[in-house]
Amino acid sequence: MSIRMIFFLSLILFLPLQISAEEKSENETKNKMALYKKTEAITQIPWYYLAAIDQYERNTQKETASSDLISITIPEDVWYGMGNVGKNSNASILPIFNGFGQDGNGDNIADPTNDEDILYSMAHWIEKVGTSRHDIKIALWRYYQRELTVQTIMNIAKVYKKFNTIELTKSDFPIPIQYNYSYRNTWGDARGFGGRRIHEGTDIFANYGVPVKATTYGVVELKGWNRYGGWRIGIRDIYGRYHYFAHLNGYKDGINVGNVVEPGDVIGSVGATGYGPPGTSGKFPPHLHYGMYKDNGYSEWSFDPYPYLRKWERAARNR
To answer: Which residues form the M23ase beta-sheet core domain (predicted)?
Structure first.
């Protein structure tokens, strides 16, 4: 059998599997959106808040109650209520035990693993406080009892609302590839200024004024001066990752805390600021310090951004 024939047969065998995977992802997105909007119609809680809660839990839960679409996972003692030792899931019984669970699909069973029941239960919890942005924020605080969690969910909702979809998969390299730049993996290297510490990022060397771009969809959480990082910006993306851009020469006009950004948006330019009081510059060659941090719902930590940068760079060069 010729090499050409083997190649042709492999394409025939592989292509249906590839299409099937793409169709599965597309159908999953459509089904999620349909469920979010159905629940919005019943409870008046905007779909993008429900989608943001679901996305936050997907980012932080090791295991989810549902094996299907929804990642929101309510602890069993909260779902069934205190004293409900038999875990009676009858929707008319749970209120006796002050249970969180509700019947979302009309079968009179509050199933903690059923997508419709889970999403409706969360929406019902919020609805009891109210349907305004302020009310939703209060309800989220009462449930999660963590400021960063509430802020993250509100910001994810802001992104979903702006783009009117949850299908936001684009990314970009932080430096335009037509400019001269260089970088290597420097995460974890020793740093001495301000005391011994590790380098929590990758340095991308480029000339003064080279544009710096957002790499993912997210919201600007931080902007301003830092003794170590100079002029810097922090962006939280929809996956709960915090992206830290430091040593900037300056900011793009109009960029402020609370702005929604998408991959490719220019947010500032390369500089050499930092290692001193506001305005200090030139203590090292111009470069972008790019750091990434992950929040698991309890704590946040730095991780190596180099593999992401390499992936985004390859994708940018192939466009």
So the answer is: 198-296
245 Cβ contact list (under 8 Å, min separation 6): 174, 212, 232, 233, 234, 235, 267, 268, 288, 289, 290
3-state secondary structure of 258: coil
Q: CA 16 from chain center: how many Å?
A: 31
CA distance 206 to 15: 42
Strand partners, 236: 219, 242
List 201's β-bridge partners, or say none: none
Element (H, E) at 310: helix 306-318
Question: How many C-beta neighbours within 10 Å does residue 55 have?
Answer: 24
SS3 state at 197? strand
The domain 181-318: what is its CATH number? 2.70.70.10
- How far, in Å, CA of 289 to CA of 301, rounded? 17
What are the residue boundaries of the structural domains of the chain, listed by start?
24-163, 181-318
For the chain, list residues with pLDDT below 50.
8, 11-12, 15, 17, 19, 195
Within 10 angstroms of residue 304's Cβ, the number of other Cβ atoms is: 16
Cβ contacts of 298 within 8 Å, gap of 6 or more: none
Listed in sequence order, the DSSP H helices in 103-196 are: 115-129, 133-144, 147-163
Tens digit of each residue's pLDDT (9 = 90 or more) over 88-115 = 999 999 999 999 999 999 999 999 999 9
Spatial distance between the Cα atoms of 32 and 69, rounded to a whole number of angstroms: 6
pLDDT at residue number 17: 47
Quote the CA–CA distance of 13 and 140 in Å, as a whole number: 48
pLDDT of 188 reads: 72
